[in-house]
Amino acid sequence: MKHFRNHLLSVTGVIGFLFLAFATMPDKGDDNSNGNAGPSSNTTRYTNSRSAFTGDLADNYVDFSFDYPKSWTRDPEAGKGDSPNFVKVSNDTADKFTIENFAVGYITGNLALLPELGAQLSDQLSRGFPNYEKVSEGKTRIGANDGYEFRFKSYVEKTPKGPVSLWGRVVLLPASGSRGVAMVMLASSIGTEVRGLEDVGVKGELPIILNSFRFSD
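and the corresponding structure tokens:
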């Protein structure tokens, strides 16, 4: 097994969810206090744009933006063709193994059913990640926005880098009306800063993204 493959999971219908799971392998966020300030010299700002999408992404478009480290790379396939994600950014090693990544898809429908959507998604993930285990779930808050999240872990015994642990955090965040976003964060034991599930979005570089994420007015 030379590398992990990209995994695509989707839920459509009354509640829709689009999610790109992980790349070739794989301080709790503060409130959205940066307002409209520009990105720092060490970050790049991503701003979602309706004109960039067609099909389901255009039909379920949500305005949002976030900053990510300039050392990270943006997936050129996200938002194109059959991609289910508006955007995906990743922090990879030189040999293309993922340390941390972040993807944003959409949710639509009755957003009061977020726990049910989370349960459905977790069930799908259990078939896509080896040795999958959902560890926790419940209400969460990203900046000024209330949402729902669940966290999971996975373990891959045989890789070119030896056994690797994967830790995931999925946040379902309503925006306005019947639309919202699905924020998917993943980290691997290949990195040195994230050492467990409780560190995802707290340590490493994912907090830069979470602290700057905001819906547009």
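(Above: one complete record from the training split.) The CA atoms of residues 96 and 157 lie 18 Å apart.
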